[in-house]
Design goal:
By secondary structure, this protein is of the alpha+beta class. It is built from 15 helices and 18 strands. The strands form 5 sheets. A 6-stranded mixed sheet has the order 13-14-15-16-17-18. Helix 15 links the parallel strand 17 and strand 18. Helix 11 crosses helix 12 and helix 14 packs across helix 15. The protein is globular, with a radius of gyration of 23 Å.
């Protein structure tokens, strides 16, 4: 019979696997610690929104505290970086050696496009050939460096030119890889020019690749269900994940467990613990979680693990937003206790808290073993973290807007006055995180 573990232990296992709960650092993390953390996670999701900070910087800050962002740039954005980009969860940095594990996905994308008569690639073969030839002769190149009549953005916001679309199609197929970024714009090069033969020529069957990805997802999550394991690298179908789980159980790498309260249709969800997962007695510390942090990016797991109803409201019209534009959950001693909407006002040199909310979804969670910390303790520790965050961002002060149940206590803890809330953001009711919300996805692939 599978071992039964408490939801509190499941959270501690999961957070420990993700690199939380370590002894606080006494000096800024260097390249070795950054690289070790990325490798522990297996991937770092990329998103271009920088109203507070680009998302790939934030998981490292959450786990390691303040560090030199230029060190992460050198590690991830250089032409000869040990990391490449691919659609591993969404767009993400992955270890260069992991690239062959996604060849089955590259082949699947090519086959899907080839079978779709309406696909852009099937009607623009000459453009694909031209881009390949240009990269072979002149690469690496950014899309903006390519001169062509078709290199004109179409549509608002992120509208792509045909040149950019061709580059992204070839990137999707694995013919093109990233050669770093310049001002956060991708540089593209042919895979044959950038990858060592040991990586480029490595053939991994789909079953073997999925089994290895499931193994890595299990190690990164500590304790997980099939849906958790499938989502980490966005593996479909789940039947392939189940096959991989059975093989890993037989090999002694995964151990079946049940987690009290993890139920579906009246029965316990199947779950597994990685055989190397630590079982910490406590999970301490405080951290801001990016919307694209592995701890919360799978909304079903965040709800099951923390009771957190969470959605990204970036694309929601301002009057309809519940919590704010770029809202980060606050992890305190192993629980999600608050959420804050942050903006780095670089011109004014101020970190603006656009709204701040206590997380109330757990207050009735006696069965889950929850003991919500006092409000003043949350405000005090968050104030300290935000002051550290502002300094890490090169900002001087923290300003708090009068919006949200945590705003006034937070301003008091910071020793600052509340700023007047923008009327456009005022809501007629107070949000309550135990209310059901539609759970949105993350950044989406825009190939059309």
């Amino acid at each position: 019979m599978p071992e039964s573990i408490s939801p509190a232990l499941a959270r501690r296992i999961a957070l420990g696997a993700q690199g939380f709960g370590a002894t606080p650092r006494t000096s800024p993390a260097g390249t070795r610690a950054l690289r070790s953390t990325i490798d522990r996670l297996g991937l770092v999701q990329i998103d271009s929104v920088n109203v507070f900070e680009r998302s790939h910087y934030l998981p490292l800050f959450a786990r390691l505290g303040p560090y030199d962002k230029s060190a992460l740039d050198r590690l991830t954005l250089g032409e000869h970086s040990p990391y490449l980009e691919y659609w591993a969860h969404e767009a993400a940095f992955i270890p260069r050696e992991a690239w062959p594990l996604f060849r089955w996905r590259m082949d699947a994308h090519r086959a899907k496009q080839a079978a779709d008569d309406t696909a852009w690639a099937n009607h623009n073969t000459p453009m694909l050939h031209w881009v390949r030839d240009l990269l072979r002769a002149e690469g690496p190149l950014k899309a903006s460096e390519i001169e062509h009549d078709a290199n004109v953005r179409r549509g608002p916001w992120w509208g792509w030119s045909d040149v950019k679309r061709a580059l992204e199609v070839l990137f999707l197929y694995g013919e093109v890889v990233t050669a770093g970024r310049d001002r956060f714009e991708r540089r593209y090069t042919l895979a044959e020019q950038a990858l060592a033969p040991a990586i480029l020529d490595q053939e991994v069957s789909m079953p073997d690749a999925i089994r290895e990805l499931v193994r890595r997802a299990a190690a990164a999550q500590g304790v997980a269900t099939v849906s958790d394991l499938a989502d980490y690298y966005r593996i479909k179908p789940q039947t392939a994940v189940r096959t991989a789980v059975r093989e890993l159980v037989d090999a002694g790498e995964l151990e079946p467990v049940t987690v009290r309260g993890w139920d579906r249709r009246g029965g316990p969800l199947e779950a597994w613990v990685h055989h190397d997962a630590r079982r910490p007695r406590r999970s301490g510390g405080i951290a801001l979680l990016s919307p694209f942090d592995p701890v919360v990016w799978f909304r079903e797991r965040a709800l099951r693990m923390f009771g957190l109803h969470y959605r990204i409201e970036i694309y929601t019209p301002a009057p309809q937003r519940v919590f704010g534009y770029y809202v980060l959950p606050v992890l305190l001693d192993g629980e999600i206790v608050a959420r804050v909407d942050l903006k780095s006002d670089r011109q004014a040199g101020v970190l603006r808290v656009q709204s701040a909310w206590f997380e109330r979804g757990h207050e009735d969670g006696v069965a889950r073993g929850l003991r919500p910390p006092p409000d003043d303790a949350v405000a005090s520790r968050l104030a300290e973290l935000l002051s550290i965050t502002a300094a890490w961002q090169g900002l001087g002060d923290v300003a708090v807007v009068d919006r949200g149940t945590l705003a006034a206590p937070l301003a008091h803890a910071l020793g600052t006055r509340l700023l007047t809330s923008d009327p456009a953001h005022r809501m007629g009711t107070t949000p309550h995180t135990s209310d059901p919300q539609s759970l949105s996805g993350d950044t989406q692939q825009l190939l059309g």
